[in-house]
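Supplementary Text 2. Reproducibility record for the structural model of the 512-residue chain.

All settings were left at their defaults, and a single model was retained for analysis rather than an ensemble. We include the record here because the model underlies the residue-level annotations in Supplementary Table 4.
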Amino acid sequence: MNGADALITTLADNGVTACFANPGTSEMQFVSALDREPRMRSVLCLFEGVATGAADGYGRMAGKPACTLLHLGPGYANGAANLHNARRAFTPVVNVIGDHATYHRGFDAPLNSDIAALAAPNSLWVKSAESADSVGPLAAEAIVASYGAPGGNASLILPADSAWNEATVKGPVVTPPAFVQPDPAAVEAVAKALSFAKKPVLLLGSGACGEAALAAAGRLSAHGVRVLTDTFTSRQARGEGRFRPDKLPYFAELALQDLEGVDLMVLVSTQRPVAFFAYPDRPSVLVPEGCSVETLCGREVDAEAALIALADAVGAPETGPRETYAQIDAPTGRLDAWAIGASIARHMPADAVVSDDAVTAGLPIFTQTRAARAHDWLSLTGGAIGQGVPAAIGAAVACPDRKVLALTGDGAGMYTVQGLWTLVREQLDVTVVVFANHAYRILGIELGRTGAGNPGPAASKLLDLGDPRIDWVALAAGMGMAAERAETAEAFEDAFARAMAAPGPRLIEAAL
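Retained model, structure tokens:
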């Protein structure tokens, strides 16, 4: 047994059985050891941002970490954007980052870098295995660290000689840390504050958006407390049979308008809301003037238990409102996000998973699917676009019996277009919908909002994706994926219905 064997065996012993990889020379011992550990599924990704985004999607759906295999500092840096999203989603991920042999570092070879410094901003835990016998124990430590609670990235640096040298020990089987139980004093304080509030709001973070936690929040809604979620949550149970809270609007002025008159905001597994960006002469903090803020529980606390305790404390009804499935009429005519959302709501099967990186098209589809069949929605928690297809890869590996839908803008999709190849390679049941508006539409909106004025010729070139136009059908075909273009609502309705009826990877270019 060498260090690489000790690492992979320790991972598998602890339930980490998916590896999203883009290896290089320093990781060849790990690659070889995969043949000796049949419990580990290895998935090749042609760009590190696909590997890290896939690990994020896997962790959100499986509730346990996958591992990534990244090549030295530049490999980690290529994957950092989607690890930023994973950090903001509190997703457990174990990053295995190859490094030069310990004795080779001092020669400052071309790929040498300060990996620990690169990994630190996105990681809960970073350590380097400086000997073969340290690899297994540190791997177990990384797994525990990734769970949190709340979870996040744990980054294990694996020098090449620690991987190839003989190891005499592997890591132990560990117990993931449990969430903290709610503080009775905090529950009592919030219950008291609610009794005096005239217009209270409950704001739910990612940890409070599972089906059971939402059911408890629904009880409070039935008691007269308005319930909102953060604008972007890591995984939200939605659709038929689930309680549907409102979503905090993305734009700051709309959020404050929506919260006008609120005199109490109760935070559940989240923090005080702030604007996504700063704007001239506009506030950063999205709490109305005169509104008090109470925290029911932080992210380290069992939010479901805290919401149940609060509902019991205020004497809320035993059940709250639930969505009932409502069939939407088939869309006709012009193809836009609302028409696409109608088709998705009509044909998306029960237990589907939606990976949303649709940017400006996302909100209409989120709205249209509120009463669709039961599904899970994965949002762009960190705002780093390029998550849609990679997270769908991970979700499909974690849940092979569920249909997965990746919604992506054409600009966002080009960040990690290599993910289409992995979908075909692994024959994952994922339908990709690309919103082809041939522009960074959100940037066109933000240009005016930031006070930068109207775009001239030079500025317009930085917002336009139409010269040349990206042919998504041709791109998909080049990677072996079945694809078609829809230019009308009727055409999209037919294409999407076919995609939902057939297994395997498919792409629909929605020509907006």
